[in-house]
Design goal:
Number of domains: 2
Distance between the termini: 62 Å
Number of helices: 12
Order of helices and strands: HEHHEEHEHEHHEEHEHEHEHHE
Largest sheet: 11 strands, mixed
Structural class: alpha/beta
Helix content: 25-40%
CATH superfamily of the largest domain: Periplasmic binding protein-like II
Strand content: 25-35%
CATH architecture of the largest domain: 3-Layer(aba) Sandwich
CATH class of the largest domain: Alpha Beta
Length: 321
């Protein structure tokens, strides 16, 4: 059989990583993941093949023990699909539950009661929240906005601060809407109930407009995530929505209406796919994936979240020589 360059590299790595007498017990397998676009910036390339087996390093099989038997797996193929919502993929996974395959979903919400009959949370990974952020000192920091107003701003249907119930700032009444996302094909992260389409007149920004608001623009309404916004607390504020302000405490406890979990779910009944799922979960909760999540800014459940300066706290000075 003719080997592709990728397969040849994998087999070469296996030769280095596994003793010859154990090599025949290694199984090459695959795993498919679904990533909602609201958390894609936190997940990144974690589910793909060369994050599981980093390039330039030996391909080390993941070993698990399931049902009294040991398994060794190499993920020769691990793919991820990104979409505005995981709902349709979750429904399809449940519909196909009689023939489970190695797949899972990075879910950005709690499973419903009906879904929990067939789906289980295998890894409770992180926390985050939808945020409307403005420049610190903006009237909205004190007045807050209603939930309907926050939804309207995010959707681009509320275009002035006065229409949102906020006193007009010095920059004028017009809202300069910024939505987190790449803007590729006019897509952005769906937040505050607004969909993935970039509203007319709005702009996409990787941080959702935080940098622009922090630079002093009172017109900017930044629709973004708490994992991003908490680092800008000296220069921006997370606008209270529906009378409730965000904090690390309310986000971690999922006590704020705009907070959500980041978890990994699979079917409860996995049959023959169970050992493969166990191996992928071992990777997902292990050091390589954890390091990747931290680097991308995920607020991990198992971590003490990095301290960031608040509005009254100056940034620490660098050590003097």
């Amino acid at each position: 059989m003719r080997l592709t360059p990728m397969l040849a590299a994998i087999l070469a790595g296996l030769t280095l990583a596994v003793p010859a007498e154990a090599a025949q017990r290694v199984e090459d397998t695959f795993f498919n993941s679904v990533v909602p676009s609201r958390v894609d910036h936190l997940i990144g390339f974690t589910p793909t093949t060369f994050a599981v087996h980093p390039p330039g390093q030996r391909v080390v099989p993941i070993q698990v023990r399931v049902g009294g038997r040991s398994y060794r797996y190499v993920f020769g193929n691990a793919a991820a699909v990104v979409g505005p919502s995981a709902d349709i993929y979750l429904r399809n996974m449940i519909r196909g539950r009689r023939h489970p395959s190695p797949e899972g979903i990075f879910l950005d919400r709690r499973p419903t009661a009906a879904e929990r009959r067939h789906v289980g949370v295998r890894a409770d990974l992180g926390r985050d929240a939808d945020v409307l952020a403005v420049q610190r000192g903006h009237p909205a920091c004190a007045s807050g906005v209603s939930r309907a107003a926050a939804r309207g701003i995010a959707a681009g249907t509320v275009r002035t601060w006065s229409a949102a119930g906020v006193p007009t700032p010095a920059s004028g009444d017009a809202i300069a809407l910024r939505r987190a996302g790449t803007g590729t094909e006019r897509s952005v992260e769906p937040r505050f109930g607004a969909d993935w389409r970039l509203p007319t007149g709005a702009r996409a920004a990787s941080d959702g407009g935080l940098s622009e608001a922090a630079s002093g623009s009172l017109a900017v309404a930044a629709i973004t995530s708490w994992s991003r916004a908490r680092a800008f607390q000296q220069t921006t504020c997370a606008v209270p929505v529906g009378g409730a302000a965000l904090s690390d405490t309310t986000v971690r406890a999922l006590a704020h209406p705009d907070a959500y979990p980041v978890s990994f779910v699979t079917l409860r009944r996995l049959d023959s796919a169970r050992p493969i799922v166990a191996a992928f979960l071992k990777y997902l909760t292990g050091p390589h994936a954890t390091t990747s999540f931290r680097q991308r800014g995920m607020l991990l459940v198992k971590d003490a979240w990095p301290t960031v300066p608040g509005p009254e706290e100056p940034s620490p000075l660098p050590p003097q020589p």
